[in-house]
Structure formats: C-alpha cells, structure tokens
Specification:
Blueprint: H1 2-22, H2 27-50, H3 56-83
Function: Core subunit of the mitochondrial membrane respiratory chain NADH dehydrogenase (Complex I) which catalyzes electron transfer from NADH through the respiratory chain, using ubiquinone as an electron acceptor.
EC number: 7.1.1.2
Enzyme class: translocase
Length: about 100
C-alpha cells in the first residue's frame, strides 16, 4: 500500500511538470500546474513526516505555497492590466 502512495505522488509531480512544460502559452495554465506540483509535494511531505510525528514543517511549506500562489496571481493581474491578455507571446520584455 505504501508503494502505491509513492507512485501516486510521483505521478502527481511528473504530470504537473509535464503540464508546466507543454502548456506554456497562457500564464494561468502554468500557474495552475505549479500549484499542482506544490500540492503533490505537500502530500508527499505529509506522508513522510507523518511517521516521525513532526508536522510543524508542513505549516511553513503551506505558507510558502500560498505566498507563491499569491505572487503568481499578482503577476497575472498585472500582466492582464498592462497587455489585455495572458498570452506569453504578446509579452515583450523590451516594452515599457
């Protein structure tokens, strides 16, 4: 049963990475795939630390995951306000 959970977590993380690499057109889809990777890592760390009765690290991990999501949404809103869409190909670094 433990091996099933290990394979499930590896599947979560790898499918999130595949989604991140393959769907690079929209910023929102890349942010969702990053959150899926964070969720997979959270479950993996939870089941590892559950055996050691040391779950305080999970609060720090969740805090950083929420901050990462909030920063990503802030960048998304800023990009939509300045360019009108969330396509990466319309985003030019040389523009002001």
């Amino acid at each position: 049963m433990v091996m099933f959970y290990n394979y499930m977590f590896i599947f979560f993380i790898l499918s999130g990475l595949w989604s991140f690499v393959s769907k690079r057109k929209h910023l929102l889809s890349t942010l969702l795939s990053l959150e899926f990777i964070v969720l997979g890592l959270f479950f993996y760390i939870f089941f590892i630390l559950l055996f050691y009765f040391e779950l305080y690290f999970l609060m720090f991990f969740l805090t950083f995951g929420v901050c990462e999501g909030a920063l990503g949404l802030g960048v998304l809103v800023s990009m939509i306000r300045s360019h009108g869409n969330d396509y990466f190909n319309s985003f030019n670094i040389l523009q002001c």
